[in-house]
Amino acid sequence: MAGAGKAKDEQAVRRRRSPDEARAQALVSARKLLIAGGPNGLTLQAVAQDIGVTHGTLIHHFGSAAELQSALMGAMVRDLATALETAVAHVRSDARAPRTVVDIVFTAFDEGGAGHLAAWIALSNRYEHLEPVREAVVDLVAALSEKVLTSGDDPPRHIPSALLLITLCAFGDAVIGGPLRGMLGRDRDAVRRLAANLLPALIE
Amino acid sequence: MSIDGPGPEAATKRRRRVPEVARREALASARRLLITSGPTAVTLKAVGDEIGVTHANLIHHFGSAAGLQSALMESMVRDLTDALGAAVEQLRSNPGAPRALVDAVFDAFDQGGAGRLAAWIALSGDLQHLEPVRAAVRDLVDAICETFAAEGEQTHHRVTSAVLFIALYAFGDAVIGAPLRDMLDREDDAGRKIVARLLPTFLF
């Protein structure tokens, strides 16, 4: 497997990529590095080595490590929008839909690494590069509002509040949930259940 | 606090301190550093410089920087337990007014710096030293259960659910709340309002 990987790497080094393709590939690599080694392993250097481009190429595409992290966070929010589509459409009609929504968001923050990445960005105080994240969040709210609107009659004015609730719970659970749940003697699922129970009250 | 008068700074530096006083001074200094400059500034060196003791002396008291951070987190949880006493009492007589309790927790995580400190401890992956925090959290839960003057599995379950929910939410709000609320076009106290509204649903 190591040999095959190496051959593939060498091939990747030589192939020319279109700018979009190179950018997309860098984000895939960044996500892989984030999940494997946490946010401090997510450097331009590590991504460049992984996909076989120069550091300069990545600077050209992203500007800096902070902007790469922000682009990755934005990409994760966009994936979340896609993943949530079906569940959100049924959130008012199907009693199990709130739990599905919660699971999708919590998984993205926990196993997907979005929680640790967000904490990392926050602790390094790099708020000036958050524009890609903002755009993705605004699009997410618009998409979800449309979905909920088609399944109910009222204007979906509670969507941002519901998103705030689920996101902050998912973020908290991903970053400090493990030790805190342990201290309180609660199981791994406890916060997901709470969030799923609270969600309907917020979007009524 | 009343054991030893404050005294001028220079005198403090030369004075020999009993271990308990030295420890408390170190924690007060660590907390100041956390609030003014964030968790990365809470180092043994910075604390040693500020209160005029040697690095070795601090190692003796806390073991390591991680030990100091954990001790600081513990003292914050204990302060929170004291601050919550009155708020929980108030909530018991008036279940419609949980805002004081919510504010106490959110302030500790936000202005008090507990949120960023917890994120820092989690990201550094050094969770070996959290035993003092665990004991403080258990005492907090016991104190709340006692205020409710009710025993049994169910009370304990409700209280741990409430603590889990408020703590994770206040943590999330302190660390990523500002940019997220801005993206979602929510006002500054949107998170506090949501929690205050939902809290009674699982405490009563």
Characterization of the model:
The complex is a heterodimer of chains A (204) and B (204). With 204 residues, chain A is mostly helical. Chain A has two domains: 1-63, no CATH class; 65-204. Chain A is built from ten helices and no strands. Chain A has helices at 2-14, 19-37, 44-51, 55-62, 65-89, 97-109, 114-123, 131-151, 159-184, 190-203. The N and C termini of chain A lie far apart (52 Å). Chain B is mainly alpha-helical and 204 residues long. The radius of gyration of chain B is 19 Å and the shape is globular. Mean pLDDT of chain B is 84; it is low at 1-12.
Keyphrases for this structure?
heterodimer, A: 204 residues, 2 domains, disordered N terminus, B: 204 residues, mainly alpha, Arc Repressor Mutant, subunit A, 0% strand
Our estimate of the beta-strand percent of chain A is: under 5%
- DSSP summary: helix tally of chain B: 10
Helix content of chain A: over 70%
Elements of chain B, N to C (H/E): HHHHHHHHHH
Question: What's a quick, concise take on this entry?
Answer:
The complex is a heterodimer of chains A (204) and B (204). Chain A has 204 residues and is mainly alpha-helical.
Element layout with pairings:
The complex is a heterodimer of chains A (204) and B (204).
Chain A (H helix, E strand, L loop, with lengths): L1 H13 L4 H19 L6 H8 L3 H8 L2 H25 L7 H13 L4 H10 L7 H21 L7 H26 L5 H14 L1
Helix pairs in contact in A: 2-3, 3-4, 5-6, 5-7, 5-8, 6-9, 6-10, 7-9, 9-10
Chain B lengths: L8 H6 L4 H19 L6 H8 L3 H8 L2 H29 L5 H11 L4 H10 L7 H17 L5 H31 L6 H14 L1
